[in-house]
Amino acid sequence: MSATGTEESISLYYKEGSSDKEYHVQLVRAIKETAVPATGLDWVVTYQYGRRGSTLRPKTKHESPVSFAEAKTVYDSMVKKQLAEGYTTGADGTPFAWDGKSWRNKRGAAAAAKSHIRGRTRLLS
After folding, report:
1. Cα angle: 12, vertex 15, 17; to 5 degrees
2. pLDDT tens across 18-64, in order?
3. Is 100 helix (H, G, I), strand (E, B) or coil?
4. Residue 43: its H or E element
5. CATH topology of domain 8-94
6. 23: which of 34, 49, 78, 114 fits an S-S bond (Cβ 3.0–4.6 Å)?
């Protein structure tokens, strides 16, 4: 990992029942006025969240810029936490689960899997 690092961003979505939320996280270089480039403290983690279609609430994880390594750690842990809570990268926000025995997905993954398997079987015949 480079000491200078690279900017990253991700958009996550959650939809279940009446809940329909979005969560956006960015790892970005701070604006020049707040950054301290000589010390390497020029990274911030920003995020926005809220109900889809409404005004999102913007937040910054740090009061002042931090090193890339610290910002990357915070960014990764925020993304990991949201994924663990059921957020997905797909805009439909439908979580996919595999129990080792059957396909479960509100979008019909079972039918898609059967179709895929049938297609592969035809190719092997």
Report:
1. 165
2. 999 999 999 998 876 655 656 778 899 999 999 998 999 999 998 88
3. coil
4. strand 43-51
5. q64v53_bacfr protein fold (2.20.140)
6. 49
